[in-house]
């Protein structure tokens, strides 16, 4: 009797790799790991991988942490503590902790799993799903697990179709018409095209499905190889591809499209520009990612806050927001917002104007400030009268300004202005 995908998901464990810094986000990851970066008004990036697992029916999850993990661990403890051991559910936080030797740190993505094999074994999963914890997307992993079991593959790799030019920055799969991976190429100058689409290539999403016992065997073999970098993308997957045991799973087969969504949505918000754009896109009339849809909820830790408040109604001093998202606890006091996304507890004061602003929790904008195309880090206090977005040269001297004109502002940058 064949098992259905729901049963297969219940026999699986998700292992989320959440230890990366995300250095391309610059100062945003000075005090937090990339998976802990805020996104979408009230969530954090890791909430998407965690929610996908829970919504897919996977209730045994491990999260490997490493770089600046305090805020990530605190968030998981506060927002993800509803798992019950008596229902065979668990969520373990797994910092690098000298499991195998005296070297504290995980050497690579594969080593992060290797160091925790005994813990994974303790839960007795039949299948292990390896996930990256730093992407924005909605996916039902049960379809991918089912496909893996039916195919008899040694590993199934989640892939997304991207324009060939963009694929140069990814690990790319060269596949045949049956989805067997013929070659895995890391950041190729000339990415191999998809069999049915010469303009696109299959890029790895950093999602892998293994049968648990086979995974343990492969990892131990890799750990014993002194030449290995102990990494899935560099060592484990290419090795299995060479043996002919790897298959690709296109994201389009298991992506979740709910509400207004019409196309598969997956984003790596690993640069300031990409982060700003993905957040601002949520303010569109028909956003590509519909976070209002309730049939595939993105779970998170929600602070207890009062509703947002808009006050003052005078010419030039009117609390208003157009094409914007404003979270609980915000006070828009006599200021105007256009295409802005404000996280919890943000305050804007009279006569200030904000356009294209992503303001993280508890930021505050002073009177008569003008901000355009800006990311405000958590708790930043913008002084009265500050103008950002009008003079590129001045912005670049004071703040972190990208080539596309997006400014990241942290409190330490503001403090330097006032000295």
UniProtKB/TrEMBL annotation:
Q: Which GO terms describe its molecular function?
A: ATP binding; glucose-1-phosphate adenylyltransferase activity
Residue ranges crossing the lipid bilayer per the database entry: none
Tell me how this protein assembles. Answer: Homotetramer.
As for family, the record states: Belongs to the bacterial/plant glucose-1-phosphate adenylyltransferase family.
What is known about what this protein does? Answer: Involved in the biosynthesis of ADP-glucose, a building block required for the elongation reactions to produce glycogen. Catalyzes the reaction between ATP and alpha-D-glucose 1-phosphate (G1P) to produce pyrophosphate and ADP-Glc.
Q: Which reaction does it catalyse?
A: alpha-D-glucose 1-phosphate + ATP + H(+) = ADP-alpha-D-glucose + diphosphate
Gene3D superfamilies associated with the record: Hexapeptide repeat proteins, Spore Coat Polysaccharide Biosynthesis Protein SpsA, Chain A
Name one process (GO BP) from the record. glycogen biosynthetic process
Record CDD domains: ADP_Glucose_PP, LbH_G1P_AT_C
Return the Pfam families for the record.
Answer: Hexapep_GlmU, NTP_transferase
Cite the Nucleotidyl transferase domain residue spans from the record.
14-283
Query: What sequence ranges are listed for the domain Glucose-1-phosphate adenylyltransferase/Bifunctional protein GlmU-like C-terminal hexapeptide?
Result: 306-409
- Which keywords belong to this entry? ATP-binding, Carbohydrate metabolism, Glycogen biosynthesis, Glycogen metabolism, Nucleotide-binding, Nucleotidyltransferase, Transferase
Write the protein's name.
Glucose-1-phosphate adenylyltransferase
Q: Give, as in the UniProt entry, the pathway in which the protein acts.
A: Glycan biosynthesis; glycogen biosynthesis
* The EC number(s) this enzyme carries: 2.7.7.27
**HAMAP family for this protein:** GlgC
**Gene name, Swiss-Prot/TrEMBL:** glgC
């Amino acid at each position: 009797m064949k098992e259905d995908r729901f049963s297969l998901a219940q026999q699986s464990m998700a292992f989320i790799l959440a230890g990366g810094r995300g250095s391309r986000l610059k100062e945003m990851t000075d005090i937090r790991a990339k998976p802990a970066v805020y996104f979408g008004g009230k969530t954090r990036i890791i909430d998407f991988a965690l929610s996908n697992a829970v919504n897919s029916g996977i209730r045994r999850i491990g999260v490997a942490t490493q770089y600046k993990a305090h805020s990530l661990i605190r968030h998981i403890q506060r927002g993800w503590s509803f798992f019950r051991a008596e229902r065979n559910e668990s969520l373990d936080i797994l910092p690098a902790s000298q499991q195998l030797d005296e070297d504290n740190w995980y050497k690579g993505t594969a080593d992060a799993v290797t160091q925790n094999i005994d813990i994974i074994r303790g839960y007795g999963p039949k299948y292990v799903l390896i996930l990256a914890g730093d992407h924005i997307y909605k996916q039902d992993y049960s379809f991918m697990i089912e496909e893996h079991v039916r195919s008899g593959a040694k590993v199934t790799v989640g892939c997304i179709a991207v324009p060939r030019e963009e694929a140069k920055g990814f690990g790319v799969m060269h596949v045949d018409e049956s989805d067997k991976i013929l070659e895995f190429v890391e950041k190729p100058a000339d990415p191999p095209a998809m069999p049915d689409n010469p303009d696109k290539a299959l890029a790895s999403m950093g999602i892998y499905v293994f049968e648990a016992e086979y995974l343990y065997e492969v990892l131990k073999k890799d750990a014993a190889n002194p030449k290995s970098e102990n990494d899935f993308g560099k060592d484990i997957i290419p090795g299995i591809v060479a043996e002919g045991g790897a298959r690709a799973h296109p994201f389009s087969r298991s992506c979740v499209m709910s509400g207004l969504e019409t196309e598969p949505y997956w984003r790596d918000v690993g640069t300031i520009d990409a982060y700003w754009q993905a957040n601002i896109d949520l303010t569109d009339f028909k956003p590509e990612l519909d976070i209002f849809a309730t049939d595939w909820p993105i779970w998170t830790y929600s602070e207890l806050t009062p509703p947002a408040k808009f006050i003052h109604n005078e010419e030039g001093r009117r609390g208003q927001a157009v094409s914007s998202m404003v979270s609980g606890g915000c006070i828009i006091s006599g200021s105007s917002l256009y295409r802005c996304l404000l996280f919890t507890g943000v305050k804007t004061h009279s006569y200030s104007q904000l356009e294209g602003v992503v303001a993280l929790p508890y930021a505050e904008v002073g009177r008569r400030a003008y901000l355009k195309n800006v990311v405000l880090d958590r708790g930043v206090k913008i002084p009265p009268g500050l103008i950002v977005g009008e003079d590129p040269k001045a912005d670049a001297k004071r703040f972190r300004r990208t080539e596309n004109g997006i400014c990241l502002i942290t409190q330490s940058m503001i403090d330097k202005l006032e000295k």
